[in-house]
Structures are given as structure tokens and as C-alpha cells.
Amino acid sequence: MTDLLTYRDDADDVEVPLLGGDVSDGVVRRGGTVRRPRGPHSPAVEAYLLHLEAAGFERAPRFLGVDDDGREVVTFLPGEMGGRPPHAWATDEDLLVQLGEWLRDLHAVSCDVVLPEGVSWPERVQFAEVPDVFDVPDVVGHNDLTVENALFVPAGDDPQGPYRLVGVIDFDMAAPTTRLLDVATSLLYWAPVAPPEARPAVLRGLDAPRRTRILTEAYGLDRAERLALLDVLAQRFARSWYAMRHAAQARGGGWQRMWDDGVGDRIRENEAWFASQRVDFVRALD
């Protein structure tokens, strides 16, 4: 379906590489658009973006078509990403509320995504060593709500903040999931669920259990769901090491670079820290 939606350029704009992400190889800005190489997952993701547009969902890129070089074309969203490393203003707790509300609104229009004939989501990889985090998905999720993928603008005249969320980009990881798993994945970056000494400097003093409570309440999780989220986080950590190793072997590129840089060890360290701090998360979410 999306292969037939051709995007023609009106002007010969200069292409500027966008280098913010770990797996952003080949992603460029051209005028008011962003281009990225397509993969087996692209037709489903593109159909999902069209679904979001038809549903009237704001603060997400619009899929425009496929250019003459075979690349996916989406709208460029203005705004400043949370930073890499994160800006100090990106730790504002009000942003957690906005992110939780954005994720809730995304899921509200993502329960009934119907793909066009001939388009399907790539099969989710299973690993013999660990069970999957879920049996049946209940939504299509973003699955990669990192600090770099959230865009903000000042809410007033002060460039130091406060800021407000204006959009989330990079839907390349979008796929069927569960609400709790997508929330858990987002919390890895925004709580963050990692040892203080392993975090960027501005995140080291943050109270991760408290921040988890703020985002999950903004999303609308009740007490039972908040506590169930802790099991989802533990299951996700158990699976992530195998998933990252598989991605490095199967997809190479940025995935291989992350693996070579020790992301597998960091996953194990984060998993151990979360297990040691779980009682504090229970208190915060109860």
C-alpha cells in the first residue's frame, strides 16, 4: 500500500544528517521533511502513522510517502529534544505528567489499528531462554519514548524553562505491545530505572520511584496496574539482553555499535539495581 504513495520534492533542498539516535543511520532532514531508509517493518509503521493522522492524533509525524530514493518521508516536527545528555529542564516533573498523558492519548487511538491488505507487522522474535513479556497485545505502541525522541518548546519567555511537550518522533520501533509494557519502556529513560552512578549527571539525584508514580498516575494507571507494572519491568529486563544481542546480530549498524559498547552489561546492571530497589518502587506505587 505505502509503496504506491510517492512523494515528489518541490525543491532541491539540502539534506542534513540527523545524528541524535543510536540507530539513526541514513536519517536526514530535507526542507520540512525527514527521510529514513525503509526496512521490512516500514509498511506497517507507515500505515500506523496514517491511522494516527486519520484519528486526529496530534504531536506525531505525518507520513507523506516514499521518495525517488526509496526512503520513507515524514513531516519534520519543530522543537528541541530533551537532550543527549539530557538538559536540566528535561527533569521537570511536569514533563512526566505531559509524557504520561501523551502516551495515554496515543494508546486510546491505537487499540483498533487495521493494516491494509498485504501489510503486516514483523513477527515478534521469541527467545528460548526467557518468556515473552506478553501473550496478546492490547495496543500498538511507540516502544521508544526516549529523552531524545521527545520534542519540547519553552512554555513562556524563559529559555531555561519550564517547557512543554510538542511532539514525539521516531516511530520506527512502533509495533503491537501492551499498555503496561510501553509505559515500562518509557520509564526506563524518564524515571530513569538505572543506578544513579550510571545515569547522565543531571539525572543522578532523581527519585526514580517517585517519578514512576507521577508518570503512571498521569497516564491513568490504577493501583493494581501500577503494581503489575513492576512485574512487567522485571520481565522486560530479563528479555532485553537477548533482544539486544539478537538485534546486533540480525540488524547490525547502530545495534551492533551499542552491543560492542557494552549495552548488554548495562542492561544486566540496570536489572540488578531495579531488583535491589523494588521495595521502594512498591512503596511509591502502592
TrEMBL record:
GO MF term (any one): transferase activity
UniProt keyword Nucleotide-binding present: no
Signal sequence range: none
Domain Aminoglycoside phosphotransferase, first and last residues per copy: 128-213
Entry keywords, A to Z: Transferase
Keyword Transferase attached: yes
Gene3D superfamilies in the cross-refs: 3.90.1200.10
Protein name from the UniProt record: Aminoglycoside phosphotransferase family protein
Species of origin: Cellulosimicrobium protaetiae
